[in-house]
Structures are given as structure tokens and as C-alpha cells.
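The instructor's notes for this session suggest beginning with a concrete chain rather than abstract definitions. Hand out the sequence below and ask the class to guess, before any prediction is shown, which regions might be ordered.
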Amino acid sequence: MTRREEKIGKRAVKAGVKAVKRKHHLLSEEELRGLKVQILSNPLRITLFLLSLGCGACAALGWPNDSNATQGAFICIGILLLVFSIFGIRRTLGSILDAMPADGAIELVGNVLGGIADLVGGAVDL
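After discussion, reveal the predicted structure:
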């Protein structure tokens, strides 16, 4: 598996465990494919947050132009970047799997289901 697939797998396991806790049963394949998985990396989300703060500061200080239109544009861009930094970009696991090669998708699904079962089984043993 590639590094990207491993990261998606970890995020899918995390989302799957949350779904199992809500539904109180192991997920079927249809429920697994419907999971929303975060695809925007955390360093990029932090960068977007810092850029949104920078846009807000530029708007407040009137840099590079004191024009109201420029300040308004900086505010709009800052709000947009802030929204993306907080919520990120989520896609369903099914759409991610459809874009992958078949052998990688099968391996990813197996790893995700195994990871969810291991974590849920470990929690039940407590």
C-alpha cells in the first residue's frame, strides 16, 4: 500500500470506530462505503488556518491597500480559508475506493475492517 492509502486507512478506521459506537454493531460493506473520511492533511489544515489569520490581519491593518474593497476581499478569503481549516474536505470511502486500483481498494477495505474489528474487540474485552 502507498503512504496515501495508509493514511486514508487510518482515518477510515477512526471514522468506522465512531460509527460502530453510534450504531452498536459492526458495519456492513454498504455502511463502510458510506463513511465520510477526511482527506485534507493536518499540516495543510494548520497552514490554511494561519493563512486565514494572516488575511484577517491584512484586512484589519489595511495592508497592502486601505481600500474597503481590498479589505472586504481579504475578509472573505480569510473566512473561506478558516472554514476549510476547521472542517477540511471529506469524501465518502466509496468514492475514494472507486478512484483506486482494484487490488489496492481490496487491501484497504480488508485493513479497515480488520482495524475496526480489532479496536472494537479490544474495547469489549475490557
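Then share the key points. The chain has a mean pLDDT of 91. The CA atoms of residues 9 and 109 lie 8 Å apart.
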